Amino acid sequence: MGRIIQNNLVIPLPPKNQTEFFKRMRPSKTNPYGFMGKTEDWVGLLTSDERERDRLRITCEQMASAIDTLFATDELLVNGNHIQRILYLTGEMCPWGDFCSTALFDLTPKVTEILVCNKTAPEAFQTHFRNGLLTPADYRMIVQNNWAIILSDLHPHLLREHEFQEGKQTPYRIDPRKLKEYLGF
Ligand SMILES: [Zn+2]
What is the Å distance from ligand 1's center to 180 Cα? Predict the structure, then answer.
């Protein structure tokens, strides 16, 4: 039904130190895009994102709720934009080590990622999108072209608990203006 149940990690795995924390944050073999780019400045990112949220008058809670709502529906469209649900066996663990959307040892496929296609994207891309032909290798390209946004079931937690939108060099970044435009909240 395209619904997911979010669970707290059975065993919390907080990073041992700052080095480990940033290792989890940056691109790696297990997380090729990372939660932020290789060279992005952590404090600068958080500061500019907070300023932008204030300027746009959008809160982390508003963004988290809109993403939660999307994960909880089986609709094919949101705000006129097509939705594509991606199933994985496991969800991404929060880099702070305090949350994962899937339980340990539960290997039932779940929707852990949702792509929303921009209704203004080229028709050829929209057809490709609706046929489910996108792969994670395409993600950077589609986000740069503003043809789609990529949402993870980890995003609501990152927004609420850590006020973190992910870095500007990852296609998983939550851009408040784009999120509002795509989801129409
Ligand atoms: Zn966390």
Answer: 23
Contact 87, 66 (CB under 8 A): no
- What does the alpha-carbon distance between residue 89 and residue 110 come to, in Å, rounded to a whole number? 6
Distance CA 88, CA 110 (A): 5
Ligand 1 centre distance from Cα of residue 69 (Å): 20
Tell me: the pLDDT tens digits for 77-109? 999 999 999 888 778 889 999 988 877 777 788
Query: Model-level pTM?
Result: 0.91
Unique residue bearing structure tokens 């997911």 = 4
Low-confidence winner among 23-27, 74-78, 129-133 (lowest mean pLDDT) = 129-133
What spacing in Å lies between the alpha carbon of 11 and ligand 1's midpoint? 13
The phi and psi torsions of 122 (rounded to 5 degrees) equal -55, 145
